[in-house]
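Shipment paperwork, digital attachment
Item: protein structure file
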Amino acid sequence: MIAGSFFDNGVRKEIRVKGRLRANSGNALLDAALKGIGLVQLPAYYITDYLETGRLKSVLDDFAYRDSAVWVVYPQHRHLSSKVRMFIDYLVENIERNQGL
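Attachment content:
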């Protein structure tokens, strides 16, 4: 069984979904959705173009889990360059702005 994250009245819930198709690839899940095989829960960067053209339709929007995580990984024992620090700051600012945090 696969778990999906949803919000119900402001409470995060993990829902176990049974099905015959399983994939750990966003592209494979996108392909399945485009072929009408079932529902998928994917990040916006996979589906935005398909939503805009009408090839996919968004459902369960009232229950969408909008929190996500992004990690920046770098060697701890090295000095953090100003370029890396600027990139991290840019990510934090823009991810928060785009998610309405």
